[in-house]
Amino acid sequence: MKAQQFKRLGTLIILCQVCLLIFTFVATCKPKKENPTEITPGSIMDSIYCKNDKEQYYAVYIPSSYDDSESWPIIYFFEPAARAKLPLRLYKDLAEKYGLLLACSYNSRNGPIVINEKAYQNMSEDVNIRLKLDAKRQFTSGFSGGGRFSQLVAQNDSSITGVIAVAGPRGDGALFDAQTYATPYVGIVGNQDMNYLEHTRFQQTLDELGVKNELIIYHAAHQWPPKEIYDQAIQWHLGLLEYNIKKNQSTKLNSYMNLRTQYLDTTQAMSNVEKQKSYQAILKNFKDINNSIINEKILAIESEKKLDKAIKQEEKILQNEEEEQIALVKALNEFRSYFFRPGFDPDSGQYSLRWWKSEIGQISNKVSLDNSKGLSAARLIDFLRGQVHNQVQGAKAFNNVELILSMHELNLYLYPNSIWFLWNQAIYCAQYNQKDKAISYLKKAKKINDELLLKIQQYPMFNGLRDQYTYLYE
User: Per its UniProt record, what SUPFAM superfamilies does this chain match (predicted)?
Assistant: First the structure.
């Protein structure tokens, strides 16, 4: 069962990474400058070029009920790979349900803060020119690095009412000061996500500061959540706004409470310790409501045997995960340094490829999706994937061939049956004149899933490879 669970986890993560890289490629190709002038409710208006800067463009979803005689709430999205239409497609049904405008920039992506700040400034100014917005209901949201930036925007722009950060808590570096952060916040993270630990720590920080917040945990790795999960975040913010005016007479808050408690009662993605924290968060955030039902649910959890022990165990698991992350980063940096030492054999170092194969194997064997320790191991695998990706990108900047190939080999230790990583390693070997190795990786991929390999080879991002490296397609 454990092996099957890990296989499903790996498949989900690889599919997410394939989509990320494909859409990253697509995002670099600017669409035709159509720049629609007429507002078309009920549809995604794509490639809207900003009036004050024609290099800045975005997509916006306008609900069918839009009428400029009223003011409308909006969510500004930030997508790490500049896939502007992706969150709009995912959540357009919620936009219809709640009468929300959705906007996402094509210029904002993981990268320099100044570029993202410029993208947000131009997008928000242009949307305000074209559409009638409610100044008291403007939200920011983003995935991964986009989630971090959404909080930075909220810290610097007092017009932002709330934040929904997905799989990326806490603003970037020195530019974000958690101690002065005050905007109502909802975090969303998968229980197998590499940033899960960071989300839980950030929630503790916000609790200590007295900032109203909620953390929504669901069953997934590093990805945008389905609309059913995102719905909870929207209802939380809308409920909070009405609660601040009507207190316990808020119908929107009651709607959120019903949705949230139903989820907590039925989800298998959260432990009882996590559920207890969520119920307690409701009491902290909404003190004037009739909380008898919430208190009953907390008492039911607290009455269970060994709860105190479970709380201590889960905190210990998180501490161990934190320490393991630090150790893995240190080992990865040391491994990287081998390739910049003249005459040094990387295979002779403490953190050689043999060591990594053994270490990753030990972590992988602990992965299980039905207990806290197993989920922690799954998060470490996801964490290491992200760190290796960063190292590969850095190695490319130095054009260090052996480092690129060795770092990418770690991906195959993480996901040994990944057609995507086998195909990419074959490409790297071909590009660096290592034909025999390229063919070897290609044979492995064909043996595992020839049909999927053929499908991947047809992706537009690989156009041109057939003419340059014919043997990769034989």
Answer: alpha/beta-Hydrolases, TPR-like
**Residues 192, 110 share a domain:** yes
Backbone angles phi, psi at 273, to 5 degrees: -65, -45
- Verify that 259 and 316 share a domain, yes or no: no
- Amino acid occupying residue 444: K
What are the tens digits of pLDDT across the range 2-27? 444 434 444 444 444 444 443 343 34
What gap in Å lies between CA 294 and CA 278, rounded to an integer? 10
Tokens representing 146 are: 């986009």
What digits encode the pLDDT tens for the residues 132-143? 999 999 999 999
Tokens 């590093």, residue? 222
CA gap 100, 74 in Å, rounded? 5
Which three-class secondary structure string do you get for 187-252?
EEEECCCCCHHHHHHHHHHHHHHCCCEEEEEECCCCCCCCHHHHHHHHHHHHHHHHHHHHHHHCHH
Q: Are residues 375 and 423 in the same domain?
A: yes
Question: Which residues is 214 bridged to in the sheet?
Answer: 186
Kindly state whether residues 314 and 302 are assigned to the same domain: no
pTM beyond cutoff 0.90 = no
Helix (H, G, I), strand (E, B) or coil at 44: strand
Instruction: Tell me which residue has tokens 């570029």.
Output: 115
State the SS3 of 10-29.
HHHHHHHHHHHHHHHHHHCC
